DNA polymerase III subunit epsilon
Amino acid sequence: MPGYAVVDLETTGFSPRYGDRIVEIAVVHVNEAGRITGEWDTLVNPERDLGPVHVHGVRAADVMRAPRFIEVADELLRLLAGRVVVAHNARFDLGFLAAEFARAGYAAPAFDEASLCTMLLARQLLPGAGRALADCCAAFDIEIGDAHQAAADAHATALLLSEYLLLAEDGFWWGTLDRASEASWPSPTGAAARDWMPRPANTAPAPAEFLVRITVKLPEFAGPVEQQQYLALLDRALLDRHLSAHEADSLVALAEELGISRSTCETLHERYFDALVDVAWADGVLEVDEIADLAAVAKLLAVPGDRLAAAINGPTGVTEAREIIVLAPTAFALQPGDHLVITGELSAPRSEWHRRIEAAGFVPRPAVTQQVKLVIAADPDSLSGKAAKARAYGIPIVGEAHLERLLAG
């Protein structure tokens, strides 16, 4: 007899009715004796904004290359079919799964005939215990690893189920197991599948990792015009002193398109940094915030430490940098009346941000058009429709911290 399939999800919000999607799926197999026999998990590209990143911890950069639900659906069906599907707050998780399967063109899964909710079972098996997963697990000294990560929550729920199996008579479980083995499940559609992609252990990319993806070309034919195009994109990408995964991809793609080699990119990065140093020293004084700014750019562009140390001691005076960088590194600037758009959930209500934007002389807009000067995103790698349109129009996307700096003058 197949046994149980414990599932846990992370989602963009609380309701598939309002467009929320799955961003992470975990499945744990438990046999009828309560032993864990297999575990699987994957991130899922929801093809929309990720919602409360502070809750689930999944960033847009993490899911950019993750499979879409339809690309893991057949394998997910294989892991669920014939088993009792178990979840903590099953109504939530199974509701999302049913909505995703329907969106992908599948018939309804057999959740009604063969599912169990460990939260509802607690009323019968753990009278007096709380309803949260942490409360139920605490009754058995079950530790939950990284809370709000699907794999950790599914594993903890599987251990909780194993304890439940010991509390009730066998007859309590056999009826559901029998129904699960006889239930009719949707057939695979044969849609193009991709390997599951678990959440990475370390989600922070190494600074300047995009450089190693640029080809080492010999010989190289790119001249000053091509180099200036690369510098212009670099200037826009570093506007908020953060290099998103989308921006890094764009730099790699442009370097390849223009025929610029990795070594030339490294040289251009150093020249760009030198130009920033000269701007910072223009008034003869290097302030603390300017030092921090130079250090941030040096880290993002893998500028050698000795070059940063020398910059702090004095301006570079690099004529070559001024010849090639006709665009000043601080060329982007907002003007009164410029249109700004917010996407995603920032730390304060959007109405409050709009009030502050208007007070600073700018115009908050609800949608991205070619007249918009800047988009502010909760996550600069946002997959929202607004962010996608901004990238298509070449409009810079920055994070909340940069909006704070702009509004502060």
